[in-house]
């Protein structure tokens, strides 16, 4: 890339793919002689460090030291931009409103133990693996399956899953944007009841406990104004979708357009522009979270809320449901096996230290979940204190309700400038959501530009944004949350697990862990240790398979707040799942038919072997890589 330093060093210093100017040591050690020999020794991390020399190729290159293929593909301006973008992608809405509730449901502080174990056995190995394969090949989430062309359907299936996610993720951004705008009003619009809500409504500012269940007498259940505001004013939610979903809400549609406009501006020049914004997207939420945590700790009852969140319920630690929750939370929180990590790392310089970055991102993601949990439950502890409840769990709503109902109600009870803290909270959520949405949109853009290199970043981003607004408008209708739940279950959650297992089998077994380790050795100069090899080949695929089996065994008809969908809705959902999963046999058959070979057996065999152009995308390291593999 023009403007990048061309110094050829390895490690923290950037190096340009396709250029090997001199003998060098991959890690601390002396320079190696030009005979290409490798000297293995142990590194502090437990990996074998390989010191090797790669001689300059005689292949002609451009004036700036890059081959033509490299010049056409974008790269991060700096390595830190890749790290920040990964943090912005992985640390998202799920860390703030899903992790605290899931942890509370599954043993509180005891949930952290299985979560960290799962992080080490599933999250971190897969994150590192996807970074390796993306950076090594400089290919997006579909073309990366040149390593096993018959499995390219995994990439297309994941692309479909990410596209499904994009369509409704932006609608969540619209909800957050609406709340952020309303937070400037005094008093907060959800703080007090409206006449049309009847006598069942209780002001969010009231110092009494709101019961959402009847007490068996003639006394009706009481509902907080924050809940009624969310459902009746913002969502305008209907009781079912048997008669249709209604028309889009014009205010939410405006915020939907706003969220997509921001994503479009960030991606107008691809990763070059996204990288510049990544600093803000990654770091700003921590500033707000720190402010909110400090404020929470100064409130009466906050410590009780934090203790309630972290207190271990040891009787749940052996419950398989807890481990299932840990795996799914880790899986979706880190955004593994969706193609986003492969896509981001494909824009790295060839010898960027992804081992370090994978460790940093997975650690920060877990830390953020715990920090967000303490912040949220500190505020909710204060809410319980104000309403006179000793049970913090009685004021907690699941999922998005944690942000839009429980937390909103807690802020409404603040004595000092509740508007300021409300604006900060929803601004933090908005920034977190933008970071994740940028990554998912980039994933789709990369697939488009890999297939059609002449398409410009701005054009691809514009088309995706327009489609996003059009499809996203479905979710801002009165029946939008019903459709969102349906698409999330069938279009993202279910098929994502199946495709994740297919990806792990493809890279760990078909392409092979041994070949992957050789790629790491060539690219980074380290040989992955036993921990990585065992996880990639055995532990992680088996754990994911167990989760899928458990999911199928415990499968129940999908409902939304007790509402049973009509048959046509279930048919639509299973059609979405089938379309995503059918990408596997469709593209597998296509790959076999396109392979060279005199017999069907030969075609089938070749379809599961790396394609002829597999390897580093630049000509010079590609030639050296093939020599490296052949000599090995």
Automatic annotation (TrEMBL):
Keywords attached to this Swiss-Prot or TrEMBL record, sorted alphabetically, are: Amino-acid transport, Disulfide bond, Glycoprotein, Ion transport, Membrane, Metal-binding, Sodium, Sodium transport, Symport, Transmembrane, Transmembrane helix, Transport
Q: What does this protein do?
A: Unusual broad substrate spectrum amino acid:sodium cotransporter that promotes absorption of the D isomers of essential amino acids. Neutral amino acids are the preferred substrates, especially methionine and phenylalanine.
GO CC, sorted alphabetically, is: plasma membrane
Please state the gene responsible for encoding this protein.
Answer: NAT8
PROSITE patterns the UniProt entry points to: NA_NEUROTRAN_SYMP_1, NA_NEUROTRAN_SYMP_3
The record's subcellular locations are: Membrane
Annotated spans, Disordered: 1-20, 30-73
Q: The organism's lineage?
A: Eukaryota, Metazoa, Ecdysozoa, Arthropoda, Hexapoda
Membrane topology, record value: Multi-pass membrane protein
Q: NCBIfam families this protein is in?
A: Na_transp
According to its UniProt record, where is this protein mainly located?
A: membrane
Give the family this protein belongs to, as stated in its UniProt record.
Belongs to the sodium:neurotransmitter symporter (SNF) (TC 2.A.22) family.
Q: Name the chain's protein.
A: Transporter
Q: Which GO terms describe its molecular function?
A: amino acid:sodium symporter activity; L-amino acid transmembrane transporter activity; metal ion binding
User: Low complexity bias located where?
Assistant: 48-61
What is an annotated GO biological process for this record, any one? amino acid import across plasma membrane
Q: Which InterPro entries match?
A: Na/ntran_symport, SNS_sf
> What is the disulfide pattern of this chain?
193-201
Q: Which CDD domains match?
A: SLC6sbd
């Amino acid at each position: 890339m023009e403007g990048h330093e061309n110094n050829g060093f390895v490690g923290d210093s950037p190096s340009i793919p396709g250029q090997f100017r001199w003998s060098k040591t991959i890690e601390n050690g002396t320079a190696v002689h030009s005979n290409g020999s490798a000297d293995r020794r142990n590194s502090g991390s437990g990996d074998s460090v390989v010191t090797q020399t790669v001689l300059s190729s005689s292949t002609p290159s451009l004036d700036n030291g890059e081959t033509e293929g490299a010049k056409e593909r974008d790269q991060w301006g700096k390595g830190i931009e890749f790290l920040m973008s990964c943090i912005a992608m992985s640390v998202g809405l799920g860390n703030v409103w899903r992790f605290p509730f899931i942890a509370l449901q599954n043993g509180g502080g005891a949930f952290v133990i299985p979560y960290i174990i799962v992080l080490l056995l599933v999250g971190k190995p897969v994150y590192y693996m996807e970074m390796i394969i993306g950076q090594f090949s400089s290919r997006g989430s579909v073309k990366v399956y040149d390593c096993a062309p018959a499995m390219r359907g995994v990439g297309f299936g994941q692309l479909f899953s990410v596209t499904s996610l994009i369509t409704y993720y932006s609608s969540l951004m619209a909800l957050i944007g609406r709340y952020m705008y309303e937070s400037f009003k005094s008093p907060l619009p959800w703080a007090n009841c409206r006449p049309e809500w009847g006598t069942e409504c209780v002001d969010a500012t009231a110092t009494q406990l709101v019961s959402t269940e009847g007490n068996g007498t003639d006394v009706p259940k009481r509902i907080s104004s924050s809940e009624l505001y969310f459902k009746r004013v913002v969502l305008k939610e209907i009781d079912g979708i048997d008669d249709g979903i209604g028309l889009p809400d014009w205010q939410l549609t405006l915020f939907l357009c706003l969220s997509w406009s921001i994503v479009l501006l960030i991606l107008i020049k691809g990763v070059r522009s996204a990288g510049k914004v990544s600093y803000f997207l990654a770091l700003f939420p921590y500033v707000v979270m720190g402010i909110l945590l400090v404020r929470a700790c100064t409130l009466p009852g906050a410590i009780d809320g934090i203790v309630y969140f972290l207190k271990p319920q040891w009787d749940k630690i052996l419950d398989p449901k807890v481990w299932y929750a840990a795996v799914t939370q880790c899986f979706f929180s880190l955004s593994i096996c969706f193609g986003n990590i492969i896509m981001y790392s494909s824009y790295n310089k060839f010898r960027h230290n992804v081992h370090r970055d994978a460790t940093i991102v997975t650690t920060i993601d877990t830390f953020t979940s715990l920090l967000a949990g303490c912040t949220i439950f500190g505020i909710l502890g204060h809410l319980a204190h104000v309403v006179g409840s000793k049970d913090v769990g009685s004021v907690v709503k699941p999922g998005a309700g944690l942000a839009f109902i429980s937390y909103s109600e807690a802020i409404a009870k603040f004595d000092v400038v509740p508007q300021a803290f409300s604006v900060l909270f929803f601004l933090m959520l908005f920034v977190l959501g933008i970071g994740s949405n940028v990554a998912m949109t980039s994933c789709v853009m990369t697939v488009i530009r890999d297939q059609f290199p002449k398409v410009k970043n701005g054009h691809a981003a514009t088309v995706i944004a327009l489609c996003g607004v059009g499809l996203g408008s479905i979710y801002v209708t009165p029946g939008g949350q019903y459709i969102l739940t349906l698409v999330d279950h069938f279009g993202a959650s279910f098929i994502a697990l199946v495709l994740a297992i297919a990806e792990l089998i493809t890279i760990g077994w078909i392409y092979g862990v041994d070949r992957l380790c050789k790629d790491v050795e060539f690219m980074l100069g380290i040989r992955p240790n036993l921990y990585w090899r065992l996880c990639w080949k055995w532990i992680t695929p088996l754990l994911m398979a167990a989760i899928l089996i458990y999911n199928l065994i415990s499968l129940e008809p999908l409902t939304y707040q007790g509402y049973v969908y009509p048959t046509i809705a279930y048919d639509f959902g299973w059609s979405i799942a089938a379309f995503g999963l059918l990408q596997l046999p469709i593209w597998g058959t296509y790959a076999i038919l396109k392979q060279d070979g005199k017999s069907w057996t030969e075609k089938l065999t070749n379809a599961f072997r790396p394609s002829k152009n597999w390897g580093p995308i630049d000509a010079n390291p590609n030639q050296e890589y093939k020599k490296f593999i052949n000599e090995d």
